[in-house]
Amino acid sequence: MNTFFLGNSEDEMEFMPIIPLNEDGEGMEDDKIPEELSLLPLRNTVLFPGVVLPITVGRDKSIKAVNDAYKTDKMIGVVAQKDSNIEEPGVTDLSDVGTVAKIVKLIKMPDGGTTIIIQGRKRFKIKDIVTEDPYFKARYELLSDEVDENDSEFDAYVSSIKDLAAQIIQLSPNIPSEASMILKNIENAPFLIHFVSSNLNSDVKEKQQLLEINNLRVRAELLMKLLQVELQLAELKNKINNKTKADLDKQQRDYFLQQQLKSIKDELGGDTNDREVKEMQRRAELKKWPEAAKELFTKGIEKLERMHPSTPDYSVVYNHLDLMLDLPWAEYTKDSYDLKKAKKVLDADHYGMDRIKERILEYLAVLKLKGDMKSPILCFIGPPGIGKTSLGRSIANAIGRKYARLSLGGLHDESEIRGHRKTYIGAMAGRILQTIRKVKSSNPVMILDEIDKVGNDFRGDPASALLEVLDPEQNGTFYDNYLELEYDLSKVLFIATANNINAIPHALRDRLEIIDLSGYSIEEKIEIAKRHLIPKQREAHGLKDYKFTFSNKVIEKIIADYTRESGVRELDRQFAAIMRSLAKDVAMGTKLKDTVSEERADKALGKSKYSNEIYKTGNPAGVAVGLAWTYVGGDILFIETSLSDGKGELKLTGNLGNVMKESAVTALSYLHANAAAFKIDPKLFQHKNVHVHVPEGAVPKDGPSAGITMLTALVSGFTGRRVKPYLAMTGEITLRGQVLPVGGIKEKILAAKRAGIKEIILCWQNEKDITDINPEYIKGLKFHYVREMNQVLETALLKR
Question: Is the whole-model pTM more than 0.85?
Fold first, then answer.
């Protein structure tokens, strides 16, 4: 016997259809079918006439029915259950139409079960159930197939059924190839329909529907529809299987080639690439990075393993992974919360600067109480040489953090901050992440030096890129183009330094906590020289073991005669010059004196560079002394006025900015309007040209603070009354004659003190700035606080 089935594999079915040797139904007419037929309910299949099936019988009722039938006429009625899940079916659970079958063979199995081989004979319909115990017995009527004579369409259906079945056999890998040949050799049309129906991979309801149809053509038509569905499913299944197989074949091929490549590398003495990748994986296991970083690293490693080291992209991927491993993800140094120790460190490193030290101690206090907070973004504004940058290092030492310095002076390329994309040749991470990588800590003190010197051009605007870095609300997710990940900068204590606050873009300035650092007074410079500068230069020039000192008087002379600065950088250079001169004496065998005298300092430094005599001499009428603020500190400036015959024109010289020119015009207009009060003939304004000049024309000058000085100089020029000697002033004026406050007061006051000025005129609103200055530093200075120009002129001008 040959066997085959359509659709599912053997283990998914409870039977195997068998092709009988007598497909034409020879001998079926001789069967003696009893009037009452024993019934055998089948769960999962429908038996068709002519088809042979092996059935395993398990139920007690069914076993008894089969045994009794086999002992007598071997005929039994096979019907399908409506619901295959019912273990003990009742009368209503049986289909009305079934197939009379002959038990060809009954086999007792070793496990006690019974298997029978049955062949379908004729269709029947149950009339009524005679008995239910010990098994079902029923009266029936036999059904015959209706066949139309000379129906050409029926023959076409039969041919199509053969073709469809053959296609399904070809697409189903579990069906033996011989099945196709057997199918071609079946010539009996009804049997072909029954046989294909029996092997159809449809559910029991559809097969039962086929069995119940009397007209063979209608039965063939329904079978065609079911076969079409079966063919589509087989094609889809075959397509999926082929695709899965192709994917599996590629994986196996890749694996095979990888193993071959590995064997070749082992023969050649191993591969450094493998060692590098393994080392990276080992380092990665120790990292506490976020899930996104872990995922990106895993993808990168997998890519690296597939690449040959000689390919150009290998170094790009390797360098990117190396950066990820070097960055200190979630690695923080522990802050020292000992506020007393921090204060000692700050005091030891820098003299003065009480405001900044207080701010740092406040930050530490909050950190100590709260345990964690976003770091503030501080910005130290002040003239050069006062220790803004070195203060950052002191802060790092005071709180036990790593120190990093990032110079922004002259930076033009935005990629320096955000990094380059990896597609560019020579791409690298931005300087922020490079610095973090270098210090190996995610919470260092980072100095952004000279933030006011950042430029912008066609390569981008670095100042705008800094907006994200310097915003505590945003920098927790700082994105670097090269890293292609977000990095947390919220724990970094950024400290920016700048000389000129006006040069910082407004949006960037808004993110900074501005702390003004004013210049040092002479008294402060003396202390700084004794505590820091002299010991440093002594050691730098090999004079540490030689005993000599500088008196306060000598230090003060060096400050007054050789420096004009707010900081101490130039003073440091002067001490270096003196130390070089002393080192030469030691090297030549000259014995050093215990104290460095003024004469010895003059010998080393040469003649005095600066003198205060120019400010102490009496000035002619029309000249007044003003106080100015520059980004390098306070300064003294003269404003000179001269009158000449003409048509009342005003001429301004001395490299003045727009605001300063407008101050001169405002002063002249006020003077013109109030000429009678100052006892000036109004006709003078029509017949005299006025020339206002500010010496040192090479230096640009701007700002409103020279307003009262210009008015004083003009009144002095028109009235001939001289300005009081040793007097300087600063303040803005209005056309109504009011005096307005100005900035940079401490710098200006210290400049006046250096120049030997004894009296200073200020706006009354600037009095609060004077109270912030240590009284010791302004001893000997007399301040006049004014509200209106009349008060300025009464104080500044001498009587005729």
Answer: no
